[in-house]
Amino acid sequence: MYDQLSVSPQASGGENFRQKAPFRVLPDGKHEHHLINLRTEVTASDTLRNFIKAIWQKQQDHNVDKDAREGSPFKSKVATHEKYGRGSESIGYGRSGNVRLSRKTSLNNQKAECYAIKEYRRGPRETMRAYRNRSTSSFCISSCLRHTNVLNILDLVQEPHGNYCDVMAFCDGGNLATLILRSGKLGALEADCFFKQLARGVEYLHSVGVAHRDLKPENLLLTSRGVLEIAGFGLAECFRFPWEAKARVTTGRCGSIPYIAPEQYLDGEFDPRPVDIWPMGMIYMVMRAGKLLWGAALKHKDNNYITYLGDRKLPSGFRPIERLQNENCRSTIYAILNPSPSRRPTASQVLASPWCCEIQLCKAGADES
């Protein structure tokens, strides 16, 4: 959802990231995450961009007032700052839109509530109908979801100038992609905790008939205490309604190329649930290795993927996965990254695996469950 955080590793300490945001193991064997709180992390480039954006917003507000006086059809629309406070700090940007932090102070001037406002950008050749459908689809799905590890969109607002905005609770720890970028790679305890939270979120989504179809580190938001929330439902699909007994199949390829399951490159229909399981394995390996295993799961084009297909059949196995010290972990990752979707475990089966059963969630994740 926050496609790419605008806080760079250099601006935030880079190599000293662990000193600022330590991962701490407690005496009783449990652990805690203390990620950088993005409410105070704004770079100089952000400051300049936000200054320019504030000038632009002021002009927009002037135009809105003018439109209202002249009987513009926008007069019935609501500016997000009227409901959720003002804010110009850019905390994310990507192809689909920009995300900014907004603060709203209560009447008695107590602690301000923080929101993440994602404003969808309309493409230069995109029709208003297509733009509206794209902007509202994520809200229609996410607003109905209720789970600790799934981000809930609180509101959908159409700004006076016509753009649609999603309003979300602010995850002050950034996203998993930025954490990996700053850290290089994560240790087993930390990565395992995030993986189990991801699996819990995916299990819930599938239980209510929703396939995400775009799981990647950029779409996994974090609180500063280490609670993981799945976001970015722009490509999500309802594969089963409550009154249906059988899941519907889907076609086509969507998502980010390194995390796309191999069956999506083939012509034909497929179950969307295994498509969500595949990137779970890719995300875990990115956390542990600090890099992607391959560029695309294409057995005729990507040499690293071709090597994986051959090595997974050998007793010696695939080297990056074999470097994982936990045998149960290796077995589960191999199962998740099975090129045959029918042989991949479900999210419930992943959680029931010996490896996941022995994973202990962080204090914050356990408290939220």
Automatic annotation (TrEMBL):
Residues 63-72 have a biased composition (Basic and acidic residues). GO terms for cellular component: cytoplasm. ATP binds at K118. SMART domains: S_TKc (SM00220). Keywords: ATP-binding, Kinase, Nucleotide-binding, Serine/threonine-protein kinase, Transferase. GO terms for molecular function: ATP binding; protein serine/threonine kinase activity. Residues 63-97 are annotated as: Disordered. InterPro entries: Kinase-like_dom_sf, Prot_kinase_dom, Protein_kinase_ATP_BS, Ser/Thr_kinase_AS. GO terms for biological process: intracellular signal transduction. Residues 85-356 form the Protein kinase domain. Coiled coil: none annotated. It comes from the Eukaryota. SUPFAM superfamilies: Protein kinase-like (PK-like). Belongs to the protein kinase superfamily. PANTHER family: MAP/MICROTUBULE AFFINITY-REGULATING KINASE, MATERNAL EMBRYONIC LEUCINE ZIPPER KINASE. This is Pkinase-domain-containing protein. It comes from Hyaloscypha variabilis (strain UAMH 11265 / GT02V1 / F).
